[in-house]
Amino acid sequence: MQNAGRALSAAGVSRIYLIHGTFAGNDALGILSELARVWPAASTVLRQYEKQLFDRVVGDVGHYTAGYGKLLEEALGQDIRVKLFHWSSENHHLGRADGAVRLLAELQEYSRDVDGERDRQGARVLLWAHSHGGNVLALLTNLLGGDAESRGRFLQAARTFYSSSRLGRGADSAWETAQQLRFTSTPLSNLRLDIVTFGTPIRYGWDTGGYDHLLHFVNHRPAEGLPPYLTRFPPSADDILSARDGDYIQQLGIAGTNIAPNALAWRSALADLRLHRLLQSGVRKKDLLKRLRLGQRVPDEGTTVLVDYGDPRGNILEHVAGHAVYTTTDWMLFHAEQVAQQYA
What is the pLDDT of residues 48-85, one digit of tens each? Predict the structure, then answer.
């Protein structure tokens, strides 16, 4: 781990963000976002309690804990800071778009901290994301790499969600940051972003202008009679219970499997619908079975490392259909060494 830390530090990595996936955040059902419109203080407090309760119950099962982050920081050393980034974790376009905007705002704040420091110019930030946290990053790269027109379409599509977030008191501060950066050609000019995803379902495209390096890890076992980079469909119940072919969440959570926002939250529902038209207008739910039969494991962009992590321990609640292995400390050294080799 210290060798990996030295390699990352030599390459300029100053900070690592650990980003969780769906249903592991502070507002998985979107209820607290609606509460924030009428009672912001209560929403903030309840988000903290919801996240603390989830962490206590679930631990590191498919989730990055504070303990994992602390151990990673201490083991790497070299003054590389590790932070956990939390987003709502809702399983739809709006949830991931909101996560991307909030991460953009946080990175912008960090960018100001390092700006003007000669020894930190071009500081590299490593974004380390599990599951749909990786798709939050895909949207982030499109915000960073896109032009003013494409950013404007994105902001307009989500406008009903954020512009009235505080009963007409103005836009949410993170979304205000996104609007301020709309016409900026290089929003994070003094930061270089490297991205690594773990078990991220194939859903959005990536913009090469929004990152330096892109690496994917996928839990996968080749199936007889198929090319080694494809997986079987449909799996049997026993296959899923034993994670026979690897990560079934990565396989099944592809485009077309969103859970729509609560219909009573009409602002969010409308924004999500408009984002769907913008981000995946050609993706029809009736074609989901056809897409699943393709058995794709490897995204079109970046380097993908297909790893046989071995037989999982425990039952499906412990290995989450092969999806939980990435966030355990057992594989921290392997992942750190692979990342250092790719990015340093």
Answer: 545 554 455 455 656 798 999 999 999 999 889 999 99
Per-residue pLDDT tens digits for 89-139: 889 999 999 999 999 999 999 988 775 554 455 689 999 999 999 999 999
Give the global pTM: 0.89
Burial class for 126, CB neighbours closer than 10 Å (0-12, 13-18, 19+): buried
10 Cβ neighbours under 8 A, 6+ residues apart = 344
Distance CA 167, CA 208 (A): 37
Q: Kindly compute the dihedral angle of the four CA atoms of residues 323, 328, 331, 336, in this order, to the nearest 10 degrees.
A: 100
Scored b (16 or more CB within 10 A) or e, 197-209 reads: bbbbbbbbebbee
